[in-house]
Design goal:
This protein has a domain of 76 residues: MDM2, CATH 1.10.245.10. 30% of the residues lie in helices and 7% in strands. The protein has six helices and four strands, in the order H-H-E-H-E-H-E-H-E-H. The protein is elongated and about 95 Å long. InterPro entries: SWIB_domain, SWIB_MDM2_dom_sf, SWIB_MDM2_domain. One of its GO terms (cellular component) is nucleus. This is DM2 domain-containing protein.
Length: 141
């Protein structure tokens, strides 16, 4: 087992662990009683901190968060010439919930009204997993 000398010295410094005394040949105590007490699992960690996430700061939105131009049908539904994909999905779901367009027997299916039919290629009913794919053609490059 490889242990870094920095980590090893942190756990076995003279302040945290008393000096070990080896048993005499005539000692009857087992070695486990003569060893140092177990280290506290809540010991102070080293000062080196690694972080997997970078600070985003005031970075411009990218990917699905970036507002894109949309088709005239989507612009009529949304009410704006540009919108991000996430915001468009939120507005579509708000419309579905507001008008109670989910199929009562199977909530995974959406019954399209006239506004949604314009966006969903004239389909009468769509599955909720199909919505993201059906709005893709409305986002212009």
């Amino acid at each position: 087992m490889a242990i870094s000398s920095g980590i090893f010295s942190t756990f076995l410094s003279t302040e945290t662990v008393p000096l070990l005394k080896f048993p005499s040949p005539t000692s009857t105590l087992p070695l486990r009683f003569l060893a140092a007490p177990p280290a506290n699992p809540r010991m102070v960690r080293s000062t080196v901190v690694t972080c997997a996430t970078a600070s985003t700061g005031n970075r411009a939105p990218r990917g699905i968060m970036k507002p894109r131009r949309v088709s005239p049908e989507m612009a009529d539904f949304i009410g704006a010439p540009e919108v991000s994909r996430t915001q468009a999905l939120k507005l579509i779901w708000a419309h579905i919930k507001e008008h109670n367009l989910q199929d009562p027997s199977n909530k995974k299916n959406i019954i399209c009204d006239e506004k949604l039919k314009k966006i969903f290629a004239g389909r009468d009913q769509v599955g909720f997993l199909e919505i993201a794919g059906l709005i893709s053609p409305h986002f212009l490059k």
